[in-house]
Amino acid sequence: MVRTNKNKVSSRAERALLSDVLPYELPVSFDNAGFVALLSELKIRISGRTVTAQWIGESTSSVLSLIFGGVVSVSRPAQGTSVTFCDPRLGREQEFPRTKSLSFNIGKNASGIRSVSMMHPRSQLAVVDFYARHADSILHYTKRSPFSIRHASDVARFSVFRDAVFSSNLDHEPTGVEEDDREYERLRSFFTYGGYSHIYKFHESPEMRTLERKYARLVHVDVTRCFDSIYTHAISWVTNGLEDSKTRTNSTTSTFGGRFDKLMQSANDLETHGILIGPEVSRIFAEVMLQEVDVRAERALRLSNDPLLHRRDYEIRRFVDDFFIFCASDEDAARIVNVLSEELRKFRLYLNDAKRKDQLTPLVSERSIAKYKFKLSIRRLITAEVGDGDPGNLPILVTSTEALLLEYKDALLSTGLSHGDLANYALVQVEFAFERALRRWQSIATDEDAPEHRPRQADWIGVARFLTNTIDVAVSLFAGGVAASHSVKLARIAHTALRFMSVAGMPRAMRAVVESKIAEELSRQIHRPPATSGAPMHSLILLDALASMHEDGGVSAPELRKLLNLKESSPDAIALLTTLRYCRRRPDLDDLRAELEDLAIESASFATEDGTPETGATLLACALLDSPFLLRQRKRDLARKLRLPSNFRPGGSTPWTRFFQWEVDDYYDSLQRKRGGDVY
Questions:
Q1: Number of other residues whose CB lies within 10 A of the CB of residue 54
Q2: pLDDT of residue 60
Q3: Cα 409 to Cα 424: distance, rounded to the nearest angstrom
Q4: What distance in Å separates the CA atoms of residue 572 and residue 370, rounded to the nearest whole number?
Q5: Which terminal residue of the chain, N or C, has fewer Cβ atoms less than 10 Å from its own Cβ?
Q6: Is the pTM of this model over 0.90?
Q7: Which residues contact 637 (CB under 8 A, 6 or more apart)?
């Protein structure tokens, strides 16, 4: 058994909250950076039910009440600067507070619908404390597997590493996630990860080619609804042993596995069947369990009467819940799949037979062929060409929309893939090629030793054409593969164009034309038919991107009402705040804004029958009290409904939790940082 230690919460763990608990598929204006800043100022320390915090002003108790999901009574300390109180959510025997997450559906393109969740801030603090106490145990249990190619490998270092498209020191494609050989200015996860940051990198790797040459068969299987099916008690079966976990329950609850079980339950309204999808801590929880399956399967195959040895008779690569089995024959494949199925079954997990794919190797992957063909097309058709003529000419930025889309369709038709199979990869490659071309053009245009390269009118016309053509390509790829993660990439391509025009100094009139084109295209995609009830997440992400442009795109009140489905349902916190942010500078949307404010205040005041803190209500309360657009009297009314202390003074300098940014300081930079969220 691995027992807990009593380390204090570290500032590193607090910084890790920047993205760990916020799903990737959220609009950019939802960000934990403000919460981390508040934690730094409050200096919260938790020991059982007792909480100590820094005094930050007369509204300290109001801030703490919102975070802890219950009225916190503290008064100005007579001496010193610290206040101490009991967590109102915890009983004598309760270690982690029960909270309700905010869940929302997202379209997954060809994969249907997936539910994603956001943790309550009190549960986020519990994760901070758990990381600080158990980092060593997490790393131990995520380094055991001979199969895993995506796992926590170390605690992230904190240093300076800038990753912006137009930084002078960037000569490579952005990697997107914390990797174990780099240091970062702003951590996006508590841990660094070994292996491959994205599954497509494994498909394109020399390792994949070596495995294809070595083995004649490749079988791809995955776990059916993995995160939804995980039984939280099973984590103790891994760390403490099945027998001890069932017969010595009292002695295992304080262990690493027992506490991990309780943490995941408490953040999910005490559910034991299924874990939240979205937070990094859930992926770590699943990895601990799946690594145990890996270890057991390898041992069972090695110790069987007719042994199969890993790296001699077969090899398995597992990326989260996807297993890639390389072996010599159909018979070996059947044995390996049966053993995996049996070991998974012991943890109440099952392989998805309907999605199993059997292939001959080498070089038979239709997906790899299609990706390679399209990558060659992009390198040829999205580029900065340097001509042999006038040495004073800048590179010619080239995008052939029609040719590129035709070659994309040819890659699909020749391999039999659907648009949804390739859309994500295609958007990533277009984005990288777009950035490379712009960096090359800018580096020559701003070369102080070559003043003859300063852009002329004809150069700017070519740049404008390149930008609009690339937007056309990206929108076409998105339109055939609508998904929340794809909308983040489309928004990033659009704001890269906007940032480039600003940095490069494009003439204002020409820039306005391109901005109008971008706004028009984003607005058109917002109105695509939803795959889920309520406002689809891809639309909210693009609406959020529009709200940070000088050109708002002109989405009308009737269109927004239809998007939110106001006649039939009440929007959730994400839809309400995103739309209110879009309405904030549009006088023609004042009536709709007032209506949405009423709905938001009503939802923020919502109290569950059992008093369990609800993430959506807390998020709305924090955002509304922090809003520069909500009238002060309405904030006072909301504070009374929330039973905040009477010393609450809206509009002051109190640092609220700020999970939502009404004004995003640098939207382009925030989108760039989102590269780190799409880890799995």
A1: 16
A2: 84
A3: 15
A4: 39
A5: N
A6: no
A7: 601
